[in-house]
Design goal:
With 202 residues, the chain is mainly α. The chain is built from nine helices and four strands, in the order αββαααααββααα. Helices cover 61% and strands 6% of the residues. The radius of gyration is 17 Å and the shape is globular.
């Protein structure tokens, strides 16, 4: 759980550190420029730091896939696209004049906080109470997915370990099953059908 998050944080931090100075205002993802995309990615650290300071009394979410299945902003149900886009831009601005250094500092703090946390501790998230061990893997998903987005936008390379990729793929597959797409995923993975254009579980 934690090692995947730490490894993903190190890989993405290394990638961000290699972004040329003149690329930050260039294309990122969708309506985001690169700074906004990196800012959005940094929220994988910011939310860990924030939520670890917010104890919960009840466990409303039982697993990482439960988080993704419940959060409207992740499933696309009722999502306020403008608000999501603005949060990304705001996070990019918050990285300041030295965005790569600010990103690295956030990564160090978040990984250290996650290491110090009790995996069984209940914390409050946007979707409800869940254990640290259920929340942190969702941030690993964000780091890996958006790490690839940053790499695609910059033409730079990034690699994640087989362990981390397996962890992310497992969370996403379980999310798909929980959302009712189990048969579709099985057929696609065994060559019996293709996924619909634009198919996503997040």
């Amino acid at each position: 759980m934690l090692e995947g998050y730490a490894e993903a944080a190190e890989a993405v931090t290394g990638l961000v550190g290699r972004i040329p100075d003149d690329a930050w205002d260039g294309p990122g993802l969708g309506e985001w420029d690169l700074r906004s995309l990196v800012g959005h990615t940094s929220r994988a650290f910011v939310t860990v730091l924030t939520y670890l300071e917010r104890p919960a009394d009840t466990e409303d979410i039982d697993a990482p896939e439960g988080y993704y299945a419940l959060v409207p902003a992740m499933t696309g149900e009722g999502i306020d696209q403008a608000a999501v886009a603005q949060r990304g831009r705001d996070a990019g601005v918050a990285l300041g004049d030295e965005p790569a250094a600010a990103f690295a500092a956030l990564a160090d703090r978040a990984v250290a906080a996650a290491r110090a946390a009790d995996p069984d501790a209940l914390i409050s998230s946007i979707a409800g109470g869940l254990r640290v061990a259920s929340y942190v893997p969702t941030r690993t998903v964000e780091l890996v997915v958006h790490g690839h987005d940053i790499a695609a936008a910059t033409g730079l390379e990034i690699e994640f370990s087989e362990h981390t990729v397996t962890q992310v793929a497992t969370v996403l597959a379980r999310t798909g099953v929980r959302l009712g797409h189990g048969r579709l995923l099985l057929d696609a993975l065994t060559g019996r059908a293709s996924l619909p254009p634009g198919f996503s579980v997040v």
